[in-house]
Amino acid sequence: MKSEEQSLKKEKIASLIQDEILTGRFLAGEYLPPERELADRFDVSRPVVHEALLILQSKGLITMRPRHGCIVNDLSSSISMRLLTELYRNKQISEPEKIEAGLVEFRQLILTHIIKKLINRISRLSVKERYHLFLPLKNKIHFSRSEDIETSAIEDFEFYRTLIDLSDSPIFLLSLETAKEIYKYQFKQFLCENISYADRIPEYKQLFFNALIEADEENSIKVMIKLTQPETYRDAELDNSMRGGCRRL
Fold first, then answer.
1. CATH 1.20.120.530 domain position(s) in the chain
2. CATH T-level fold of 83-233
3. Mind listing the pLDDT tens digit for each residue in 49-64?
4. What are the helix (H) ranges across the chain?
5. Which of 15, 40, 42, 71 lies 20 to 30 Å from 186, alpha-carbon distance?
6. GO terms for molecular function, please (predicted)?
7. pLDDT of residue 90
8. CA nearest 131: which of 141, 121, 122?
9. Mean pLDDT, rounded, for 7-13
10. Top-tier CATH class for 1-78
11. What CA–CA distance (Å, rounded) separates 228 from 231?
């Protein structure tokens, strides 16, 4: 029971400090207060604070330097940081559609970076090895119940979460998690207005998956951009130029 309480405490403390980093209380290059000071502030033991800081380090927000302290990482060079900050500040707004354009840009910037990173990583692998690596993504291509909008929104989010998770990019994963509720809201809005197009989304995901297996960076990005644009699904047919470069497995 005590172990469970400590786990909850470290998660809570990590969340509070994360809030302060993302809202600018602690800036890039600054050191966080010493562990002893944080322990006094949150009324917990130093080991609990230390575990909370390890969580923040795993997310890429800080770097723990022995005998020096914890420094806030410079995230300004991350292509997602500007949008992450905007999404973080607006994650509980009552009208998520107000930042729709930002979310589309946010997703495409992140996924373009992720695709390039993954293609570089898998270029020396065989097709079978790539297939095995991306199998968790393949398992999330199809909706379990396409008529259930709520379930489909969650499953669509998990598809992209799995893709980012495979790239081992904690800051991008944090960005997507921050945008989760806004993302789900917009996806449900799209399906409500275009339910007849729901079956086409897995078709594009399959094309995207095939392009990844082929380690085809150009086509992967091309399909991904199509996949993330709502107007794509109002086209009469799938783009034949994208079909040609992909092989079904």
1. 83-233
2. Four Helix Bundle (Hemerythrin (Met), subunit A) (1.20.120)
3. 999 999 988 877 889 9
4. 2-22, 35-42, 46-58, 81-89, 100-122, 127-133, 135-138, 149-166, 170-178, 180-193, 200-213, 217-227, 240-244
5. 15
6. DNA binding; DNA-binding transcription factor activity
7. 53
8. 122
9. 88
10. mainly alpha
11. 9
